[in-house]
Amino acid sequence: MSVQTTEYVASEIRSPASFFASRVFIYGALVFWAFICLFPIYWTITTSFKTAVDVTQGHLIPFVDFQPDWKGWRSLGLSPDSIFQTSTVREEFLKRFMNSVITSVGASSLAIVIGSLAAYGLTRYRYHFAWFKNEDISFFFLSQLILPPVVLALPFLVLYREVGLLDTRVGLILLYTLMVLPIVIWIMRDQFNSIPVELEEAALVDGLSIWGAFFRIVMPIALPGMVAAFILAMVLCWNEYFFAALLTSTDAKTIPVMVASQTGSQGINWWSMAALATAAIAPLAVIGIALERYLIMGMTAGAVK
Amino acid sequence: MANQTLPTNAWPADAAPYDLISPSRKRFGWALMAAATLGLLAVIALEILYKTEADTVGFETWRPVVYAYVLWGVAIGIGQVLTRGEDGQRALFLLPALLFTIAMVIFPTLFGFYIALTDWNLSSFSGRKFNGLANFWQMLSDPYYRNALFNMVLYVLAVLVEYVIAFGLALLLNSQIRARKFFRVVFLMPLMLSPVAVSWMVGKSLMEYRFGPASTLARYLGWENPAFFSDPIIARISIMVLDAWTFIPFMMIMLLAGLQAMSREILEAARVDGANAWQTFWQVTFPLMLPVSVTAVILRIIFKLKLADIIITVTSGGPGGATDSVSSFIYREYRDRSNVGYGTMLAMVYLIIIVVFVTWLLKFASRFVRNVN
């Protein structure tokens, strides 16, 4: 085997020149795309440290092109000199931030709980629900994925007003749960399918109940999948804009809605916009870097057999 | 209700009914479910009577009905276990998600079909009037809606370009490179970030006509008048680019997983047979990747059909509705004109169109994949 591998590598390197050229091409393309991915983020972060002049003159590099300034962050009440003073903007920002955290964590948790249970049931037992069988029930859940938000938005607007859930976090949590539930069920079905049934059979023989076997045996094994589904759901809920824009006004407004509504009467304050955008994307950027493995796991569930 | 979920004992095979259910327990379970159903119906009936002012006792909002539904769900769950023992316990796995989804989807969608048949403007005082298919006829002669539908076709076609780029990136990440993890994290980044925040910063400032670096670069490259959002065609392309930036990583990750799952032996065999890199890709890699590719493209199209937030934040459909997607058009129909009835009709028609389209797409894709393999 090892001999074959060296042969393979040797045939790969035909001549030093062509090897070098292909290396240059590959790394050039990689660096180019990395630049495309990172430049908007770089632009957002640096703009939050610019003054009006620096923005309109298109300065790019801090300390070389322009002197960083806390202006943007001060307008949010988050700069070093204003952080200990009272600031209504900061209070509003923190309120929106907490709304985003509560709705996305709440919705993801709820979706994980009911989604995992349903996925487990669907992979392990056979159901008949009237004339619907397992495949039909699975399809029913997954088909929710194609339902565009715009179809539900207006009926929900009316219904939520009748039920008194308009502009509440609970209302948003319920909708977001609905939105991510198909994805959670998709990922968790894949997870449970990869766990051998024999484990639970052994547990049942040892006297555990069905639910006991699920909680004590299956859950711990499926935990990485649950984390993956949870994080993917978090990302989707955190970034959701459409429902939040339609169904919230003062109390339950989330960060994306706050970002989108930042057009002042005197045009756009780029520096405070950029600071706000930075604050909105920072939590997910951190999650993305730290938990990238789980994200990839969630996204590739069921894609490759 | 109770007979509707009937797990047959597929697994584990319980030859003997080892938990025997006493008749009294069974009766209690039935009584509980019946009582809960009656209670739910009673609350709904009371609320309807109150709202139609047939009686004076009732609740201000419909919220008690929601609570009643939740309690009813709990009672049904308990009743299942009481009457059917272990089978009931199995049904309990599925019930929460099922009751939740039915309540959240079926009822609002049916209600939506009703709203679609009414003339209802939130800002007018006349309230809701049933007007049959009038909204539908109005829709047929609405050039903006037709334009939005046409744009959706263009936006969906753009997925193919995204697919080519994503495939290229996946191949790059799969080749023998250093710092693979670093590049993977960086390439994944755009997917994580809020499209609203990013499209604000990119669409409105990076691509700003006077000072944006993208415009500066375009001028440098010889485009004299780099206005990204004033010409209808260029504006559409700009929206496609912004959306592609966000979602290319999604396809890239799926394709990368597919590439990594491919066995090296097949590639080596191709090489031994004297195929060059180009031939290997088209004769071996690409056909083997077809199932993954189809899954990635279909999922991406499904997400694309929901495209709205970038358009709402960057162009609000402009110039002159040229960049509107169906979702953003309906959003403005409601936000600017409070036209709930008409907007819902548009949404319902869109729903029917995409259900038909996606069903066809799935059929087509499965046949396509089978024929090639």
From TrEMBL, chain A:
InterPro entries: BP-dep_ABC_trans_perm, MetI-like, MetI-like_sf. The chain crosses the membrane at residues 24-43, 97-119, 139-160, 172-189, 226-248, 268-291. Residues 97-291 form the ABC transmembrane type-1 domain. One of its GO terms (cellular component) is plasma membrane. GO terms for biological process: transmembrane transport. It is found in: Cell membrane. Keywords: Cell membrane, Membrane, Transmembrane, Transmembrane helix, Transport. PROSITE patterns: ABC_TM1. It comes from the Bacteria. It is a multi-pass membrane protein. It holds the Pfam family BPD_transp_1. Belongs to the binding-protein-dependent transport system permease family. This is Sugar ABC transporter permease. It comes from Mesorhizobium kowhaii. The lineage of its organism: Bacteria, Pseudomonadati, Pseudomonadota, Alphaproteobacteria, Hyphomicrobiales.
